[in-house]
Amino acid sequence: MAVDSEYLMQFVDETSFYNRIVLSHLLPSNLLDLLPHFLQTWLRNYLAGTLLYFISGFLWCFYIYYLKLNVYIPRDAIPTRKAMLLQIYVAMKAMPCYTLLPTVSEYMIESGWTKCYSRIGEVSWFLYFVSIAVYLILVEFGIYWMHRELHDIKPLYKYLHATHHIYNKQNTLSPFAGLAFHPLDGILQAVPHVIALFIVPIHFTTHIGLLFMEAIWTANIHDCIHGNIWPVMGAGYHTIHHTTYKHNYGHYTIWMDWMFGSLRDPLLQEDDNKAE
Fold first, then answer.
1. pLDDT of 183-233, one tens digit each?
2. Subcellular location, in the record's words (predicted)?
3. Are 115 and 221 in contact (CB under 8 A)?
4. Which of 16, 110, 211, 268 has the fewest other C-beta atoms within 10 Å?
5. What is the 3-class SS of 17-46, one letter each residue?
6. How far apart are CA 217 and CA 193, in angstroms?
7. Cis link prior to 231 (omega < 30° from 0)?
8. Mean pLDDT throughout 35-47?
9. How far apart are CA 50 and CA 276, in angstroms?
């Protein structure tokens, strides 16, 4: 069903507003207006993604490695500066490609190809939260299987996912490892966010916010601290994934691993290690 062009302009106006917020401080308005809208959006996403990566990474590292030294992680388990700088280097090489995905998704939304809606007031609050829940379930399902296939299909692992799995011990994992992927690997694992747009109605700004929350979440699950909050797929579970390579493929929760038989609990792992 065709979407009214006047309605679609609401999406364009909103993305243009975000573009001006980020880019007006860097470029004079006459130069900014010369850039195509798609390029403006990509530049905004690139700058916002880079800032989010560094701010979340540095703040989290400062908290767990300095303010809470020996509380969460012993000194000898802290990653070296060399390891963290390598993770930053890999992430920053991939960042231009990572941020192309939300730019393309915004283009598809502006073109009326998705089920996104512009204002929360268009639906009830009940439907708003139900749509978020369904969206997240679809994303969780998609990321689980995308991640699992990146391990099970050997060429995908060798040429893409192995870049991330060089960080396979506690003293090499850090919040900065969260986005240290081969560019195509990072895009593939975020694609379920875009696919879900064609299946479930979702509020536009909420979709963008959830996509960028990935940067904060991936920093969290690479800090090696087991939060033990059921059913959250915390860092304790994900650290096991980095050491065994065949467990805990999930993203936000443990449900997919539980349903498909790949779950391994960090507390049971500790018990097994003590028994040995």
1. 999 999 999 999 999 999 999 999 988 988 887 888 888 887 877 788 988
2. Membrane
3. no
4. 268
5. HHHHHHHCCCCCHHHHHHCCHHHHHHHHHH
6. 14
7. yes
8. 95
9. 43
* CA dist 91 → 24, 57, 172, 216 (Å): 26, 12, 15, 14
What type of residue is 155? Answer: P
Give residue 175's identity as a one-letter amino acid code.
Answer: P
CA nearest neighbour of 72 among 206, 228, 231, 243: 228
Provide the 3-class DSSP secondary structure of residue 260. Answer: helix
**3-state secondary structure at position 50:** helix
Which DSSP string do the residues of 207-242 spell out, in sequence order?
HHHHHHHHHHHHHHTTS------TTB--HHHHHHHH
Is 0.85 topped by the overall pTM? Answer: yes
